[in-house]
Amino acid sequence: MSLPRIVATLAASLLLASSAIAAPTTAFKVDVTGNASGAPMILIPGLSSAGAVWDGTVKRYCGARRCHVLTLAGFAGVPAIDAPLLATAEQQLSEYIAANKLQQPVIVGHSLGGFLGLKLAADHPDQVGRLVIVDSLPALAAIQMPSITGPQMKEMAAGMRTRMLGMDAATYKAGQLQTLRTMITGEADVQRALVWGQQSDRTTVANAMADLMAQDLRQEVARIKAPTLVMGTWIAYKNFGTRDQFLQGYQDQYRQLPGVKIELADNARHFIMLDDPDWMYDRIDQFLK
Fold first, then answer.
1. What pLDDT is stored for residue 247 in this prediction?
2. Quick one: signal sequence residues (predicted)?
3. Is 156 contained in some domain?
Protein backbone atom coordinates (compact mmCIF):
# COMPACT_ATOMS: atom_id res chain seq x y z
CA MET A 1 0.00 0.00 0.00
CA SER A 2 1.38 3.43 -0.92
CA LEU A 3 2.20 6.00 1.75
CA PRO A 4 -0.69 8.33 0.73
CA ARG A 5 -3.07 5.36 0.86
CA ILE A 6 -1.81 4.40 4.32
CA VAL A 7 -2.22 7.97 5.57
CA ALA A 8 -5.74 8.15 4.16
CA THR A 9 -6.68 4.83 5.76
CA LEU A 10 -5.31 5.92 9.15
CA ALA A 11 -7.14 9.24 8.91
CA ALA A 12 -10.39 7.47 8.13
CA SER A 13 -9.88 5.09 11.04
CA LEU A 14 -9.16 7.97 13.40
CA LEU A 15 -12.26 9.80 12.17
CA LEU A 16 -14.43 6.76 12.78
CA ALA A 17 -12.90 6.27 16.22
CA SER A 18 -13.45 9.93 17.05
CA SER A 19 -17.08 9.72 15.93
CA ALA A 20 -17.63 6.63 18.07
CA ILE A 21 -16.13 8.36 21.11
CA ALA A 22 -18.19 11.49 20.52
CA ALA A 23 -21.48 9.64 20.07
CA PRO A 24 -23.77 10.44 23.03
CA THR A 25 -24.48 7.54 25.38
CA THR A 26 -26.40 9.32 28.13
CA ALA A 27 -30.09 8.47 28.07
CA PHE A 28 -31.23 11.71 29.68
CA LYS A 29 -30.25 15.25 30.63
CA VAL A 30 -30.87 16.30 34.23
CA ASP A 31 -31.63 19.74 35.68
CA VAL A 32 -31.29 19.84 39.46
CA THR A 33 -32.94 22.45 41.65
CA GLY A 34 -34.10 22.95 45.23
CA ASN A 35 -32.73 22.41 48.71
CA ALA A 36 -29.93 19.83 48.76
CA SER A 37 -31.09 18.54 52.15
CA GLY A 38 -34.71 18.15 51.07
CA ALA A 39 -36.41 14.88 50.18
CA PRO A 40 -35.56 14.04 46.55
CA MET A 41 -38.05 14.02 43.69
CA ILE A 42 -37.37 12.86 40.12
CA LEU A 43 -39.65 14.17 37.37
CA ILE A 44 -39.81 12.38 34.00
CA PRO A 45 -41.64 13.92 31.01
CA GLY A 46 -43.43 12.00 28.30
CA LEU A 47 -42.85 11.34 24.61
CA SER A 48 -41.10 14.24 22.83
CA SER A 49 -41.49 16.51 25.86
CA ALA A 50 -38.87 18.65 27.54
CA GLY A 51 -38.32 18.64 31.27
CA ALA A 52 -39.74 22.17 31.16
CA VAL A 53 -43.21 20.62 31.03
CA TRP A 54 -42.72 20.28 34.81
CA ASP A 55 -41.85 23.97 35.41
CA GLY A 56 -45.03 24.62 37.39
CA THR A 57 -44.56 21.42 39.39
CA VAL A 58 -40.97 22.41 40.18
CA LYS A 59 -42.13 25.79 41.50
CA ARG A 60 -44.67 24.01 43.68
CA TYR A 61 -42.47 21.31 45.19
CA CYS A 62 -38.81 22.09 44.63
CA GLY A 63 -37.99 24.68 47.24
CA ALA A 64 -37.75 22.60 50.39
CA ARG A 65 -36.93 19.43 48.45
CA ARG A 66 -34.28 18.65 45.84
CA CYS A 67 -35.71 17.93 42.38
CA HIS A 68 -34.07 16.18 39.45
CA VAL A 69 -35.88 17.00 36.20
CA LEU A 70 -35.12 14.74 33.24
CA THR A 71 -35.34 15.28 29.50
CA LEU A 72 -34.89 11.99 27.69
CA ALA A 73 -32.32 11.54 24.92
CA GLY A 74 -33.66 12.35 21.46
CA PHE A 75 -36.46 14.53 22.84
CA ALA A 76 -36.75 18.33 22.70
CA GLY A 77 -33.25 18.89 21.33
CA VAL A 78 -31.33 16.53 23.63
CA PRO A 79 -28.97 14.39 21.49
CA ALA A 80 -30.28 10.95 20.61
CA ILE A 81 -28.51 7.70 21.51
CA ASP A 82 -28.17 4.52 19.49
CA ALA A 83 -29.27 2.20 22.30
CA PRO A 84 -32.95 1.40 23.04
CA LEU A 85 -34.17 4.46 24.92
CA LEU A 86 -36.54 3.00 27.55
CA ALA A 87 -34.30 0.15 28.68
CA THR A 88 -31.19 2.35 28.70
CA ALA A 89 -32.93 5.18 30.55
CA GLU A 90 -34.23 2.77 33.18
CA GLN A 91 -30.78 1.31 33.84
CA GLN A 92 -29.06 4.69 33.87
CA LEU A 93 -31.72 6.18 36.15
CA SER A 94 -31.19 3.35 38.61
CA GLU A 95 -27.45 4.04 38.47
CA TYR A 96 -28.06 7.77 38.86
CA ILE A 97 -30.13 7.20 42.01
CA ALA A 98 -27.38 5.02 43.48
CA ALA A 99 -24.49 7.27 42.46
CA ASN A 100 -26.15 10.37 43.93
CA LYS A 101 -27.22 8.51 47.07
CA LEU A 102 -30.87 9.49 46.61
CA GLN A 103 -32.75 7.81 49.41
CA GLN A 104 -36.00 6.42 48.01
CA PRO A 105 -36.94 9.44 45.89
CA VAL A 106 -40.46 10.29 44.82
CA ILE A 107 -40.71 9.40 41.12
CA VAL A 108 -43.17 11.50 39.10
CA GLY A 109 -43.72 10.43 35.49
CA HIS A 110 -46.04 11.59 32.74
CA SER A 111 -47.19 9.31 29.91
CA LEU A 112 -44.09 7.50 28.58
CA GLY A 113 -42.27 8.92 31.61
CA GLY A 114 -44.88 7.29 33.82
CA PHE A 115 -44.33 3.98 32.10
CA LEU A 116 -40.59 4.38 32.73
CA GLY A 117 -41.35 5.08 36.38
CA LEU A 118 -43.46 1.92 36.63
CA LYS A 119 -40.70 -0.16 35.04
CA LEU A 120 -38.07 1.29 37.37
CA ALA A 121 -40.22 0.67 40.44
CA ALA A 122 -40.96 -2.91 39.34
CA ASP A 123 -37.36 -3.82 38.48
CA HIS A 124 -35.71 -1.85 41.33
CA PRO A 125 -38.43 -1.79 44.01
CA ASP A 126 -36.13 -0.78 46.87
CA GLN A 127 -34.94 2.38 45.09
CA VAL A 128 -38.32 4.09 44.86
CA GLY A 129 -40.01 5.71 47.84
CA ARG A 130 -43.28 6.86 46.29
CA LEU A 131 -44.57 6.74 42.74
CA VAL A 132 -46.78 9.35 41.04
CA ILE A 133 -48.11 8.37 37.60
CA VAL A 134 -49.64 11.10 35.45
CA ASP A 135 -51.90 9.54 32.82
CA SER A 136 -49.97 6.41 31.95
CA LEU A 137 -50.90 2.74 31.80
CA PRO A 138 -49.02 -0.55 32.22
CA ALA A 139 -50.23 -1.75 28.81
CA LEU A 140 -51.22 1.09 26.50
CA ALA A 141 -52.11 -1.21 23.60
CA ALA A 142 -54.58 -3.08 25.80
CA ILE A 143 -56.76 -0.11 26.72
CA GLN A 144 -59.29 -0.93 24.00
CA MET A 145 -58.42 -4.64 23.68
CA PRO A 146 -57.79 -6.02 27.20
CA SER A 147 -57.23 -9.53 25.82
CA ILE A 148 -54.66 -8.48 23.22
CA THR A 149 -51.70 -10.89 23.03
CA GLY A 150 -48.01 -10.09 23.12
CA PRO A 151 -47.51 -10.88 19.41
CA GLN A 152 -50.50 -8.70 18.52
CA MET A 153 -49.01 -5.83 20.55
CA LYS A 154 -45.70 -6.16 18.73
CA GLU A 155 -47.44 -6.25 15.35
CA MET A 156 -49.46 -3.14 16.20
CA ALA A 157 -46.34 -1.36 17.43
CA ALA A 158 -44.32 -2.24 14.33
CA GLY A 159 -47.06 -0.95 12.05
CA MET A 160 -47.27 2.33 13.93
CA ARG A 161 -43.48 2.75 13.80
CA THR A 162 -43.46 2.18 10.04
CA ARG A 163 -46.20 4.77 9.53
CA MET A 164 -44.44 7.38 11.68
CA LEU A 165 -41.13 6.97 9.87
CA GLY A 166 -42.76 6.94 6.45
CA MET A 167 -44.44 10.35 6.71
CA ASP A 168 -43.05 13.41 4.95
CA ALA A 169 -42.12 16.33 7.23
CA ALA A 170 -45.32 18.32 6.64
CA THR A 171 -47.60 15.35 7.31
CA TYR A 172 -45.63 14.41 10.42
CA LYS A 173 -45.89 17.94 11.84
CA ALA A 174 -49.61 18.13 11.04
CA GLY A 175 -50.11 14.81 12.82
CA GLN A 176 -48.21 16.06 15.86
CA LEU A 177 -50.35 19.19 16.02
CA GLN A 178 -53.61 17.27 15.66
CA THR A 179 -52.58 14.83 18.39
CA LEU A 180 -51.45 17.57 20.78
CA ARG A 181 -54.79 19.35 20.42
CA THR A 182 -56.51 16.24 21.77
CA MET A 183 -54.04 16.11 24.67
CA ILE A 184 -53.79 19.78 25.74
CA THR A 185 -56.54 22.38 26.11
CA GLY A 186 -54.65 25.70 25.88
CA GLU A 187 -53.37 26.67 22.43
CA ALA A 188 -50.24 28.34 23.82
CA ASP A 189 -49.35 25.08 25.59
CA VAL A 190 -50.09 23.14 22.39
CA GLN A 191 -47.67 25.31 20.42
CA ARG A 192 -44.97 24.99 23.07
CA ALA A 193 -45.28 21.21 23.03
CA LEU A 194 -45.23 21.26 19.22
CA VAL A 195 -41.84 23.01 19.29
CA TRP A 196 -40.51 20.26 21.56
CA GLY A 197 -41.89 17.66 19.18
CA GLN A 198 -40.27 19.32 16.18
CA GLN A 199 -36.95 19.42 18.06
CA SER A 200 -37.18 15.69 18.79
CA ASP A 201 -35.44 13.00 16.74
CA ARG A 202 -38.17 11.25 14.78
CA THR A 203 -36.49 7.84 14.82
CA THR A 204 -36.14 8.02 18.60
CA VAL A 205 -39.78 9.05 18.97
CA ALA A 206 -41.02 6.25 16.68
CA ASN A 207 -38.84 3.61 18.35
CA ALA A 208 -39.81 4.71 21.87
CA MET A 209 -43.51 4.78 21.03
CA ALA A 210 -43.30 1.35 19.43
CA ASP A 211 -41.43 0.01 22.48
CA LEU A 212 -44.11 1.46 24.74
CA MET A 213 -46.93 -0.05 22.67
CA ALA A 214 -45.30 -3.49 22.58
CA GLN A 215 -44.85 -3.88 26.36
CA ASP A 216 -47.26 -5.15 28.98
CA LEU A 217 -46.53 -4.46 32.66
CA ARG A 218 -49.93 -5.47 34.00
CA GLN A 219 -48.46 -8.43 35.89
CA GLU A 220 -45.04 -6.87 36.57
CA VAL A 221 -46.51 -4.01 38.62
CA ALA A 222 -47.14 -6.56 41.38
CA ARG A 223 -43.41 -6.25 42.20
CA ILE A 224 -43.74 -2.55 43.02
CA LYS A 225 -43.33 -1.79 46.73
CA ALA A 226 -43.76 1.98 46.57
CA PRO A 227 -47.12 3.55 47.44
CA THR A 228 -48.51 4.64 44.08
CA LEU A 229 -50.83 7.43 42.97
CA VAL A 230 -52.23 7.23 39.43
CA MET A 231 -53.96 10.29 37.96
CA GLY A 232 -55.82 9.64 34.72
CA THR A 233 -57.99 11.58 32.29
CA TRP A 234 -61.06 10.89 30.21
CA ILE A 235 -62.78 14.06 28.93
CA ALA A 236 -60.87 14.15 25.62
CA TYR A 237 -62.31 10.70 24.87
CA LYS A 238 -65.81 11.12 26.30
CA ASN A 239 -67.34 10.25 22.92
CA PHE A 240 -65.92 6.75 23.33
CA GLY A 241 -67.13 5.92 26.82
CA THR A 242 -68.40 7.14 30.18
CA ARG A 243 -66.30 8.28 33.10
CA ASP A 244 -67.10 5.05 34.94
CA GLN A 245 -65.96 2.99 31.96
CA PHE A 246 -62.63 4.81 31.80
CA LEU A 247 -62.15 4.48 35.56
CA GLN A 248 -62.81 0.75 35.25
CA GLY A 249 -60.19 0.55 32.51
CA TYR A 250 -57.56 2.12 34.76
CA GLN A 251 -58.54 -0.12 37.66
CA ASP A 252 -58.29 -3.23 35.49
CA GLN A 253 -54.83 -2.31 34.24
CA TYR A 254 -53.51 -1.62 37.75
CA ARG A 255 -55.31 -4.53 39.40
CA GLN A 256 -52.07 -6.31 40.36
CA LEU A 257 -50.54 -3.24 42.06
CA PRO A 258 -51.30 -3.47 45.80
CA GLY A 259 -52.83 -0.38 47.37
CA VAL A 260 -52.73 1.77 44.25
CA LYS A 261 -54.79 4.99 44.47
CA ILE A 262 -56.46 5.99 41.20
CA GLU A 263 -57.99 9.43 40.54
CA LEU A 264 -59.58 10.73 37.33
CA ALA A 265 -59.41 14.41 36.40
CA ASP A 266 -62.65 15.87 35.05
CA ASN A 267 -61.25 19.12 33.61
CA ALA A 268 -57.90 18.10 32.16
CA ARG A 269 -56.71 16.30 29.10
CA HIS A 270 -53.59 14.13 28.89
CA PHE A 271 -51.18 16.87 30.06
CA ILE A 272 -52.79 17.27 33.47
CA MET A 273 -49.89 19.38 34.78
CA LEU A 274 -50.74 22.01 32.12
CA ASP A 275 -54.52 21.74 31.97
CA ASP A 276 -55.44 21.54 35.67
CA PRO A 277 -52.32 21.87 37.82
CA ASP A 278 -54.21 22.83 40.99
CA TRP A 279 -56.21 19.59 40.85
CA MET A 280 -52.99 17.63 40.34
CA TYR A 281 -51.14 19.41 43.15
CA ASP A 282 -54.02 18.79 45.56
CA ARG A 283 -53.86 15.05 44.87
CA ILE A 284 -50.07 14.95 45.16
CA ASP A 285 -50.17 16.97 48.40
CA GLN A 286 -52.57 14.50 49.97
CA PHE A 287 -50.54 11.56 48.69
CA LEU A 288 -47.22 12.85 50.06
CA LYS A 289 -48.56 13.62 53.55
1. 97
2. 1-22
3. yes
